[in-house]
User: Fold this.
Amino acid sequence: MPTLINDVAERVKSLPDADKLHLVDELLVQLDRPDPEIDKIWAEEARKRWRAYREGRVGAVPYEEVMAKYRRP
Assistant:
């Protein structure tokens, strides 16, 4: 199998960038399948965080403050 992967990787190198992006998109669509167990874990985490916020155990950070941290100078 590694040989097939290597062959495909070599062929992809010759594609135009737009085609490479299309290929990546196709691969991500195939890999992005819902996982009910992960969804359940995240839903519970969201409930815990919301509860902690409502009870005053954690604070909130304003949107602009968060975004400023990641904006380029």
Notes: Helices lie at 2-13, 17-31, 36-54, 63-70. The first helix runs from residue 2 to 13. The chain has a mean pLDDT of 94. The radius of gyration is 21 Å.
